[in-house]
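pasting input
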Amino acid sequence: MDFEVLWRYAPSLLSGFGVTVLCWGAGGALGVALGFLIALLNRLRLAPLRRLLRVFIEVFRGTPFLVQLFLLYAGGPYIGLRLSATTAGVIGLGLYSSAYFAEIFRGGFAAVPVGQIEAATSVGMKPFDVLWRVTLPAALIAALPPIVNMLIVLSKETVVLSIITVPELMYQMQTMAAETFTAFDAIFAMAVFYWLLVEGVSRLGRRLEARVTAFMAEEARPA
Amino acid sequence: MIEIRGLDKSFGAHKVLRGVDLTVGRSEVVCLIGPSGSGKSTLLRCVNFLESYDAGEVRIAGKLIGYEDAPDGTRRPMGAWRLREMRREIGMVFQHFNLWPHMSALRNVAEPLRRVRGLSVSEADDRARAMLKRVGLSDKAAAYPSRLSGGQQQRVAIARALAMQPRLMLFDEPTSALDPELVGEVLEVMKSLASEGMTMLIVTHEMGFAAHVADRIAFIDDGRIVDEGRPRHVFHESAEPRVRQFLQTYHDRNSF
């Protein structure tokens, strides 16, 4: 372990970590938002739209993220889409994960017991109110654990961005390893950084889940 | 209040209701009994059109529900807005309570008042509190459903339906999912409703309750009303072999 080298490269490693977190956060947010939109549009039950969304999901789930990213970054200019590496990385992460998030939200909607919706229908609630007040909260609660899980998976997919020269953690590590011939130190430091990130995310997720379940299990505190 | 005539309903190739006729008058309490799978629940669910029907008609206070007669004599599905208008007048209580788990008992009762009746938060909360008091759950207003017993959940569900001030109430096996010692508290609430003159159509396996509270009993088997009349008639004087057999099984199971 060469601490002197690690110390010397600390600024670039930290900036790489920052870029990783940023890409992951922005890409994940884009993916969640897009996935949610897809799941909602799917509920409109318009057959042509549904088929289109199905194709979208199958394409982005069915091909490797690396291939998608290359197509977007290197193939983009052919159709006039010139993106910076980081922008391409964020959009790539967003598109790729949106396919998974769409399926997670679909599962969340499917997990809402039909009876809860019937109860709302039977009192004469409007479809929008049923969705907004009954279906959506229950679906989101059901979808929360798999969403957190997918965000963790996504945090590790960010390493792929190094291939299109996004200056994230993996990229900085490779630079350091190449310049100083310290492959083991670099990989070890990287593992620590990623573990920190994932641990942070899963702790946050657990706390969120605990809060959501607690508020349904506990008697609400008197106002 | 409810007039059902010649009601037919199929699920695919399976005929669930075969020409059912049934009338429930104002303030009348009618219990539907019969073996499982006989079509009782489906019949009940046709009354507020949670289940569509294929032929015949269901009228609430004279108004056809679920369909509209077009000028050319054909029938078309009722507009969603008008269907909601009608459903607001019909309270329904489900076997599995169907409370919304992410809302407290109070919110469960107040939510429809706000969304459907358009009451303000404080008006809705006041009425919801009054309703919870009526079913004996004043102290549980802040509790979420998962913290309530089955009997308490069902009483909240009754309060939720009642708060809308419906003209009639439908009960779909309201005590079937309850532990035996919790059945009584729910039946008590229903009994008091009946004595206050609420029009009620109840699918139940509680023969004792049906015998004491119902004005009339309809026995359904295989999608048909096999026998109908005062409790005394159905329980003790029915000539229908299917009814006698059903009640005999019931007695055998409940005697010790």
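fyi The interface with chain B takes residues 113, 115-116, 118-127, 129, 133-134, 137-138, 141, 215-222 of chain A (CB under 8 Å).
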